[in-house]
Amino acid sequence: MAYTSVVLFLVLPALALLYTYVKQHYRFWTERKIPQLDASFPLGNMKNVGRKVHFNDILGQAYEKGKAVAAPFVGLYFMLKPVLIVTDLDMVKRILVKDFNSFHDRGLYVNERDDPLSGHLFALDGERWRFLRNKLSPTFTSGKIKLMFATIREIGDEFLASVHSYVDRDQPIDIKLLSQCFTCDVVGSCAFGLQCNSLKNEGSRLLEIGDMVFKPPNWRNMLLFLLISFKKVAKWLRLPVMPSEVSSFFMPLVRDTVADRERNHIERPDFLNLLIQLKNKGTVEDEVSEGLEKITLDEVAAQAFVFFFAGFETSSTTLAFALFELANNQDIQERVRVEVLEKLKLHDGQMTYDALKEMTYLDQVINETLRIYPPVPNLIRVNTQSYTIPTTDVTLAKDTMFMIPIHAIHHDADIYPEPKRFDPDRFVPEAVQSRHTHAFLPFGDGPRNCIGMRFGLLEVKFGIVQMVSRLRFTVNPRTEVPLRMSKTAAILEAEGGLWLNATKLY
Questions:
Q1: Bridge partners, residue 105, by sequence
Q2: What's the CA gap between 103 and 437, in Å, rounded?
Q3: Is 447 helix (H, G, I), strand (E, B) or coil?
């Protein structure tokens, strides 16, 4: 009995203190005069994410609340971590562009000692990010990308042959899978000179690794939030960002490929060749390399990793949704086809880099696809110094995390009437000029926008042209329309898949 009394005497006050702390903690934003969503212990506002709702739905709720009360921010909680959702487009512009010097970091967890692949351009902060961004920017010029076009065209022929095989067998096409195979083969070849053969085999080990990166179980998503929230503890515990299977597959792949190229003096017009130049000379240009800081082999692997996985998954998602929308909107599909065939005719029927650049209505189709299905549905920034919210007396402490809800902005009915309707005419020049400059952010904006934007758009554009110039698509009944999005996938994915029928035009 005495033992029980002692336990109760110790435990009950401790529980009472914990309850008081948590209750007070979840008033963090309210006490700073910032509206917030109600949260509960221990997951904060993440309670039903991955089960009943998608993460984008929570950010959408915060965005709508901010609009309703005319507040530039709304607070919520990733478990115990307070986070601000940016709900005003002028504030979005300040964070990404005008006040970039205060918001150049993403605040993600990086542990290069125990997980070298985590030290990539997307995640790094501060001077390390600036150094690598400056080093890598020349590798994504139009001229460098144009050199890779012949490779894309070769793989495009395999893409078409794969679709033709389904047409010949009168079978429905899993367009997301084939789009993944196409972009995996393109990026594998353009990044490493590898023949992934995903299209020939309808899959590859690289695609399986990609699923580990972009379709993690719920517990791993929660672990990632904890790593970001408690970075110092995580580094002390030597916790990695990536699953061990990803690192054990990818690190030897890059090291062996680099060693083979250097041993045999192999040079190819691909991304890895440019990274090898940065490792050996400190530059990708023909200039004197004395005094130029070089990058390490681990840094080569990390940049190759993010280019490969971010490049193939985001591009395949956009390509698949674009082909679905064309199949679901026959008038738009025909309008695209007319433009495509007209521009190809001007270039002797050849699909050239210059011919693709002239297809402006197709650009509108891709932009509308990116609006409805942004592959990166939100952006993260942290302030590197205390920041006073303009026109208020509220000052936010250094290292406050901000999230820009791209998906919510792109589906704002006040900006895009009938936001679920697919309408490429939203992107005629006059309509674009009438909207806020930051109402469309598929690649972010400012100095930290997507460095591979040109390459990704080229992949998508090429894939669409290759398909609609030879085939007519319709939606197979296996596709559930209207689409329902997966609640667990990090990148937007339709439940049940995107299944299309196709017939040959000639």
A1: 382
A2: 19
A3: helix
CA distance 384 to 215: 31
Query: Tens-digit pLDDT profile for the chain (506 aa)?
Result: 556 655 555 554 555 445 555 656 799 999 999 999 999 888 889 888 888 899 999 999 999 999 999 999 999 998 889 999 999 999 999 999 999 999 999 999 999 999 999 999 999 999 989 988 988 887 788 888 888 888 889 999 999 999 999 999 999 999 999 999 999 999 888 877 778 888 888 878 888 888 888 777 777 877 888 888 888 999 999 999 888 888 998 899 899 999 999 999 888 878 888 889 888 887 776 554 455 688 899 999 999 888 887 788 899 999 999 999 999 999 999 999 999 999 999 999 889 999 999 999 999 999 999 999 999 999 999 999 999 988 788 899 999 999 999 999 999 999 999 999 999 999 999 999 999 999 999 999 999 999 989 999 999 999 999 999 999 999 999 999 999 998 888 888 999 999 999 999 98
**DSSP H stretches of helix in 69-204:** 89-93, 126-136, 142-147, 149-168, 175-192, 198-201
3-state secondary structure of 142: helix
> What is the spatial distance between Cα 421 and Cα 424, in angstroms, rounded to a whole number?
10
Chain centroid to CA 472:
29
Give SS3 for 471.
strand
Q: According to DSSP H, which parts of 403-501 are helical? A: 406-410, 429-434, 453-468
Rounded distance between C-alpha atoms, residue 320 and residue 330, angstroms: 16
Identify which of 405, 366, 352, 448 has the alpha carbon closest to the alpha carbon of residue 91: 405
Distance (Å, whole) CA 452 – CA 187: 11
Angle CA(443)–CA(446)–CA(449) in degrees, nearest 5? 30
> Are the beta carbons of 152 and 190 closer than 8 angstroms?
yes
Q: Hey, what are 439's tokens?
A: 């109402």
CA distance 214 to 246: 12
The answer to whether residues 314 and 456 touch, using CB atoms and an 8 Å cutoff, is yes
Q: Closest Cα to residue 327, out of 179, 169, 488, 187?
A: 179
Number of neighbours of residue 226 by Cβ within 10 angstroms:
18
Return the residue matching tokens 């806020």. 436
Give the whole-angstrom CA distance, residue 506 versus residue 501: 16
- DSSP H or E stretch at residue 403: strand 401-404
Check if the beta carbon of residue 35 is closer than 8 Å to that of residue 69. yes
What is the model's pTM?
0.92
